[in-house]
Amino acid sequence: MDGVIARLPVPAPAAPSRGWLSRLSRKSETPAAGPKGLYLWGGVGRGKSMLMDLIMDAAPIKAKRRVHFHEFMQEVQAGLERMRKAGVADAVVPVADEIAAQTRLFCFDEMQITDIADAMIVGRLFQVLFDRGVMVVTTSNRVPEDLYKNGLNRQLFLPFIGLLRERMEVVELVSDQDHRQNRAEGGKVWFSPADTAARQSMDLIWSDLTGGRPATPLLIEVMGRKVEIPQHVGRVGRASFWDLCSKPLGPADYLAIAKALDVIFIDAIPRLSMTNYNEAKRFVTLVDALYEAQVKLFASSVDEPERLYQEGEGAFEFERTASRLHEMRDADWGNRTAQDNG
Length: 342
Prior knowledge:
Layout lengths: L1 H6 L29 E5 L6 H11 L5 E5 H17 L6 H11 L2 E5 L6 H16 L3 E6 L17 H10 E5 L17 E2 L4 H15 L5 E7 L2 E9 L2 E5 H5 L5 H10 L2 E7 L7 H16 L3 E6 L13 H13 L15
Parallel strand pairs: 1-4, 1-5, 2-3, 3-4, 6-11, 9-10, 10-11
Antiparallel strand pairs: 7-8, 8-9
Helix pairs in contact: 3-4, 4-5, 5-6, 9-10, 10-11
């Protein structure tokens, strides 16, 4: 890790005015002279989020924001729709200008492009942000050339990869170890296999957290639609894997669920493969939303996280999800509590 940190363009304390982050404190006179961003990529548990924390703390400005890439793109798509309704033909530039007017440093967690709507606008969006002098720092599990891999009309996305290489420092974090899995686990929160004993254990914890109060469905409104959690008491919710992942839900829905709950129980997570590929993709997005919101997770599953998805398309991406599921088993996971569920 020391070797990786030494490669980062972070300013030396003795001369901050000449450092990489210090460029944020002054507006660039031309786009070409604008600050270069930073693209951190590598396997799961290699320290990308830790370095992002350090960058956010060290940045000498107030106009900075850290957000999950999924959530940011949802905001952008909503902004584009607002502009189109107002009669703006080319909506990307004014949306990007609004963002640039409010934020000098954007830190994105987990850049990945899976949606064609995002793929078709992200290049122009980031070009405007860079031209306006916004510094972008992002983490990803993939090298830029592997973003939107095998995606529809990917040839239209390729200029964005060139833009990332031109305007960002691309740094790989290399380690033989996933540091998340070394953390001590606390009370049991993951039950496998998903048999009768697992169900009984989940039921006991549910009863303890909810005080035995009767559960009712939770309806969450998302963009004019209703997303249902079959059982909830206060800010504790419960649903099966199929309740959450067999329906056509997307990032906005899962972000709304994560904001509505402090604790979620997920029953009967199956083995994942190409036979349930769409459901598996939704599960990955769901875990990302729960992780970023630090929602406490209790789950029953056919197997341990690292053995849920071992073969076929999507198995590589699931390594990050499995690592996050391990981290979410820690006793200290999450900053929120479920003590007040009234």
